[in-house]
Amino acid sequence: MERKTFQLGDVIEMKKPHPCGTNAWKVIRMGMDIRIKCTGCGHSVMLPRSRFERRMKKVLKQAE
Prior knowledge:
Elements: E1 11-14, E2 24-29, E3 33-38, E4 44-48, H1 49-55, E5 56-61
Antiparallel strand pairs: 1-2, 1-5, 2-3, 3-4
């Protein structure tokens, strides 16, 4: 299986939407753990990289 590529500042789509109704998240920290921030309500979540890569669907917008 191919590894998903993403960078700091990318807006990504997750498989399941956030309870606020938004499915877009911004990557705000990378390392062993990935911290993402909801673009709808601003809630941030930290996930282990393996769990994040399983739940990530695609990159919606690349970082500048």
